[in-house]
Protein 1
Amino acid sequence: MSEERTEVASLGEFGLIDHLTRNNETRQASTILSIGDDAAVIDQFGKQTVISSDMLIEGVHFDLMYTPLKHLGYKSVVVNLSDICAMNATPTHITLNLGISNRFSVEALDEFYEGVYAACNFYNVDLIGGDTVSSQRGLIISITAIGEITPDKFVTRSGAKSKDLLCVSGDLGGAYLGLQLLEREKKIFLEHPEIKPDLEGRAYVTGRLLKPEARIDIVEWLAENDIVPTSMMDISDGLSSEILHICKQSNVGCVLYEDKIPFHDETKEVAYKFDTDPTACALSGGEDYELLFTIKQDDYDKLRMQEKISVIGYMTEPAEGKYLITRKGNKHELTAQGWTAFQ
């Protein structure tokens, strides 16, 4: 029995929007008017508003050969919410714009939206609008995320000071290795379609790529423990380039200790299997969506026992440079080799 396929053209633009948003719920008291009018209306009740926008292009940011549409919908939301978390804010709303070609059926878009709604539900965020247009080829996704924060409590990349501690949430390098594993299996499949993909049971690293999470839990934990980071950003392009962003914008140097960088056991196992150094995966890999932030030394005792956060170095005067201290105690200048757009 063949799966049912409904052509997008059979519904028309407004029919498609009605169909895809038929089960859309509002969760936020701040949502006054949602999808269905010329614009949405939100009232942030005396909070400041934080806004971030991101685009994902098929063939550049994702590959549908190994990315299920539901996972893609979920991840599209998460990578935007991560930017809101990186400002120390709470995400509340998103808008979603899609460019779709006629190779996508209504059922395929339903799958994508399932992931979008799953993320909205998990993060308590409202989808309040967007646009759906034709694309000549491929899938184009653009999301704007909106968040709220108590006035002037937002955290930028430019507030780090010399002697501040450099911290990171979670563990690093997994998403990059998940990508390597999936790309390897894609190559084998294209050359030998009869061979079934073998992901070797590596659910952790493939999950880090296909279903990342935004670290709202870290933002909440910092607030509960009365810690306001001096600077913060999320790790989308690799640890080294993100640290260098903070150094540049805050006009500071840094010392990063290789043996303090956190890794999941599976990340290390897969790295060695690929004959790759886990540290290189963390420094240059990207797409981990963990939070990188600096705190005053006075706050160290508050997070000393927190397993979700690792102190990986400290900030210095700008003239002291930016260095990585290896496990063997050697000193290397920190360079950015992460993802660079337009190359």
Note: The longest strand covers residues 90-100.
Protein 2
Amino acid sequence: MNRAFLAAATALTLTLPAVAQDEPLPSSSEAVGQPKTPAPAPSEIVAAAPKSDWVAIPAEDLLVMTLAPDAEGKPRTVVIQLMPAPFSQGWVHNIRLLARAKWYDGISVNRVQDNYVTQWGDPNYDNPEATGKPKPLPQGLKVMGEAEYVTHDWCGHHVCPPLPPVGADDTKQDDTYGNAGIVRGWPLSSQQGMSGVWPVHCYGMVGVGRNYSPDTGSGAELYTVIGHAPRHLDRNIALVGRVIEGMEHLSSLPRGSGDLGFYTAEEAGKRTPILTVRVASDLPASEQPRFEYLSTESAIFARYAEAIANRRDPFFIVPAGGADICNIRVPVRRVTDGG
């Protein structure tokens, strides 16, 4: 497993110089103001990716969360992709167990803090003003230690080499929180001289709510990032996945006025009920959603990332020369019957 991850990282690194050369240099006529062919936008690069560059997401890695209908009676469904091995697997085990025990059915969204997170769980536990009896947890939940926030076996307990750069080899990769990269579809970070890597808190990532250390959370309380990436949470809390469809149903909810954005007793009516949460592989075959992501080890992804860092399509005036790791969002698409 470790060798496969490192091989993928190396392969991405080696393809980058060739990708960077795909962009032709301006001709002399362009230099004196003559019309030129507009550079493609990142979305156009993704749209041109061949089918072979898309990777299927296993149904076992998908959670389908059904919220109560909105005020107009329209259905609301959120699909979450769980992180694959070797990341956060104790918590991912618990989340699948909780879903299969139907423990999440009937809980609610209890906290919406502006520019931060939306959090859901048992309203009699995940709520500072709760007075009711907490919902009993199912048997078989794992208890994880804080060391598991970081994937130490990524490099076999040795110091990790730098993560591969994202996009062209001249794209800036400065990151306040360490060395950042995207491997096998996930944004990751590491620090020079340290062993291990860890996923990062980008918009839409899903994490596990917890109390004060040494508690690390069970997976019964979950949150998703709805604002600017709170990267200070990296390595301080477990990340277990990301929302890949229906994010608007969680980011647009009314904000709570209590501490940390929790709904107060007077705002109990603002809590959004969660009707069901199911592992997609447990649904009837006809109801299982299918998704795939653009391989982050492909030349197309490297070109897409470079285009985000250096926008040259008609609207833009000055290429930035770099991009925050969280701004290079991995393209994910739903697969239709004809796709």
Note: The longest helix spans residues 2-20.
